[in-house]
């Protein structure tokens, strides 16, 4: 087994995760099988209980692991399936060592950071690196390890020491260190400054780790004299000083690395030049150019409560992007703060209220993502009501599905007080209830998590057609509440159709409104399994329906399509699926350009 370690210096947020993922893509293109490990030095055992404001979205794996969002980048870039053990945290390491101490495994020894914690870290890396993640039986050839945080952080010190020891454990030719650092440009003089990187490398060497390559983040390509200076003061060969300058989108980064022959430097350090081929990135090169041909846009209103932090919905954004580019459309995301849609905002902040409703009404589709808590719930319900009444394509994910059911029960069944017990534990007519197997005393790891099977109940429903007319699908879950089974017959009699259920038939997984062009809610999180070139079927359906609505609106402006009260009254515009039973047909590839409202800035997303 060969190991590539990616560390970061100077400041956080340099893009270590994207760099690690891109290195994986490059090595995979050389014919190697690649796995990944992310080390997070925080004391939490996992990311499950952390606020999105603290750490972005919580990414969910097939085995139910709640992990750092960087593992989502690894899965999307490399098209692999990781496990919860691929995310190492300080909490997990200390917990495992303390459990051993309580069992007496250390035979009376004084348990210390060195060697017990450091040994536990090294053992964990070696064990997890050998677990296949690409569907094959044999271990991967290379494990790419990303150390979170910044060199010098107190909390990461045990990992630095462990990795220093680990480089000697695996021996020469089996370990390559890539240090990602910042080369800032001072506006006053316009000169690229190397001193921060010099200090970062000096500190790294002082901790027992010597970088093989320097990956330097900068706004523009490094000047030759700057590269020479870094090579001289950081004791790194000039050919191994790599520029990671700003690019139009991050799909260019693997190509940027290839152009600088980073693969050769890594393979030389790992003594693998003789067993690999030249990187074949033909499809990747094609993919980077796809977005240039995407001129016709599609607008999706994202109605949530973390609209000021795009990382909170990172996988949803990527799934939308995969689906939009697969259909040849440029994605525009209109962030709609759910609370701004509520009536109380019209009194407290009329401008915000007006702006939110203008964004919602100007979109070609509405998406209500998952979430927790009651803030903004009434606004989400109003968004679902608007989409249902105006035949605007709607996709509700997890809470978004529950929101759609609540709105329908209130508006159609006349149950004005119905809600979820999450928002009102004493509700008399809840149409969403706490799952009986859930824990009300512990939050971490107590939800219904991971890959679960959903069986289609209606063979010709929209969702089944999008998934290729299969009888069941496996998707990832993360929820504590479910639609009240006691209200299903009442809801279905009024027009809702619960077309997907779990293996017991009592837990609702997919809901549709057959009379609507596209109105679908799913209890699972399809965004976690979306891949570039292989977008999630339900996201493909939303984008296709949104494109059709836009076409109808534009045609109406030229007198070709009849609108009633400004509302499109067409039938479902989608559902031309593969007949091979797999997925919605797409074009080849995707890209990273997402245009977002709010600040007028073009934001580049990740894969």
Secondary structure layout plus pairing:
Layout: E1 2-8, H1 16-29, E2 34-40, H2 52-55, E3 59-60, E4 66-67, H3 70-78, E5 87-89, H4 90-103, H5 113-129, E6 142-147, H6 157-170, E7 175-182, E8 185-186, E9 191-192, H7 195-206, E10 213-218, H8 224-234, E11 241-245, H9 252-259, H10 262-269, H11 282-290, E12 297-304, H12 314-326, E13 330-337, H13 343-348, H14 350-362, E14 365-368, H15 377-389, E15 394-397, H16 399-411, E16 432-434, E17 448-456, H17 462-466, E18 472-479, E19 481-483, H18 488-493, E20 497-501, E21 508-512, E22 519-522, H19 537-557, E23 563-564, E24 567-568, E25 593-596, E26 602-604
Parallel strand pairs: 1-6, 1-7, 2-5, 2-6, 7-10, 10-11, 12-13, 12-14, 13-25, 14-15, 15-22
Antiparallel strand pairs: 3-4, 8-9, 16-19, 17-18, 17-20, 20-21, 21-22, 23-24, 25-26
Pfam families: CTP_synth_N (PF06418), GATase (PF00117)
Domain CTP synthase N-terminal: 2-272
Protein name: CTP synthase
Q: What does this entry show, briefly?
A:
Its EC number is 6.3.4.2. By secondary structure, the protein is α/β, with parallel strands linked by helices. It contains 19 helices and 26 strands.
